[in-house]
Design brief:
Structural class: mainly alpha
Order of helices and strands: HH
Number of strands: 0
């Protein structure tokens, strides 16, 4: 069995990263259906480079 058979690739709406909107939008699925899972790589939740990511993180943190 090939290891590729064991790998499930999520679409970008299920792993939305800062890279998907850094210079231009490149996740068409998220534009159509919205973002389902927000990935906080590159410290996106903790620095001011991506204010939307930080704002979403703070909103969720305040609810919890």
């Amino acid at each position: 069995m090939c290891t590729v058979d064991l790998l499930y690739q999520y679409s970008c709406e299920w792993n939305y990263r800062p890279d998907h909107c850094m210079y231009m939008s490149n996740c068409h699925a998220a534009e159509l259906r919205g973002v389902s899972v927000l990935h906080g790589c590159r410290r996106a939740f903790h620095i001011d480079k991506w204010p939307v990511f930080r704002a979403i993180y703070q909103a969720v943190e305040n609810v919890s």
